[in-house]
Amino acid sequence: MCLDEFLSQLFETGRVEVPPGPEPMEVTPAARRRLFVAYEADAWHFPGAQPAWHAEAAESAARWLSAAAMCLADRTIDEVTMVRLLAPPATPESAAEHYSADLCLRYLPDLHDLARSTSEDDPLVRSFVEMGERFSLSAAGMPGESVAPAAVLEHAGLRRLYLDRLTVRRDAARLRHSAIANLAREGLGDHVEMLPNLANHGN
Domain ranges in the chain? Predict the structure, then answer.
């Protein structure tokens, strides 16, 4: 199986099949095209103007997610190999990097839930949480209280996307963070009572 097939399944159904490990799937020209097509398609759902395309961030996230799915499916992979396969990509700095990586990493909370359903002490759970701390736009609803950085919160569309995710996933810990609470209050206005954990925060 190649990365293009993995991405096709991911973007079309959200359900994937992966080959047994431990060899990672490589980025091919077809996979690169698949990622860019997904970026273009996401414009229909994105709240406002999209950040620019960042191919390297998208490709690194795709490689990482496919390796994570492989490790979750093939529990014969030893921990040393797992650590190598799940070495996180570079921390994103720009809005373009955060958003391009999120095309794949928005599925990270689902992988985390699957791993945690097996065991809270599963090494994969720790790896997924660490990844979420680095790619916080994609980690709404996951354990932790770190929030998205300025590159996300200062972009109008990404800020709206992030706040929507925190609300839908009822991520109370992050919604109580002062910076996020203020942004959410500005967005909700008179409807702040929709978030009971936020309504009285800071009053």
Answer: 3-143
Distance of alpha carbon 97 from alpha carbon 191, whole angstroms:
32
Q: Cβ neighbours of residue 180 under 8 Å, at least 6 residues apart?
A: 147, 163, 166, 174
Q: Compute the distance between CA of residue 96 and CA of residue 82 in angstroms, rounded to an integer.
A: 28
Q: What would the 3-class secondary structure string for the chain be?
A: CCHHHHHHHHHHHCCCCCCCCCCCCCCCHHHHHHHHHHHHHHCCCCCCCCCCCCHHHHHHHHHHHHHHHHHHHCCCCCHHHHHHHCCCCCCCCCHHHHHHHHHHHCCHHHHHHHHHHHCCCCHHHHHHHHHHHHCHHHCCCCCCCCCCCHHHHCCHHHHHHHHHHHHHCCCHHHHCCHHHHHHHHHHHHHHHHHCHHHHCCCC
- Contact between 92 and 98 under an 8 Å Cβ cutoff? The reply is yes
How far apart are the C-alpha atoms of 183 and 198, rounded to whole Å? 11
Phi, psi of 137 (to 5 degrees): -60, -35
Contact 34, 53 (CB under 8 A): no
pLDDT tens per residue, range 89-138: 999 999 999 999 999 999 999 999 999 887 778 889 999 999 999 999 99
pTM of the model: 0.89
Q: Are 198 and 175 in contact (CB under 8 A)?
A: yes
* CA distance linking residue 120 with residue 177, whole number of Å: 25
